[in-house]
Each structure stands twice: as structure tokens, then as C-alpha cells.
Specification:
- It comes from Brassica napus.
- This is BnaC04g26760D protein.
- By secondary structure, this protein is mainly alpha-helical.
- The chain has one domain.
- It has one helix and no strands.
- The radius of gyration is 12 Å and the shape is rod-shaped.
Amino acid sequence: MASDVSCARPSFLVVVVNVSLFLHQT
């Protein structure tokens, strides 16, 4: 469970960063 959470957190952050960059880019 801990491994999944640890892996999911960075993924979520990456998605948020990508979306933010995409919004700023347009």
C-alpha cells in the first residue's frame, strides 16, 4: 500500500505540473 501511495503521489504532481504548463503555454 505504501509503495502504491508513494508512486501515485509523484504521478499526480507530474499531471498537475503538465496541466499547469499546458494552460500557461496556450
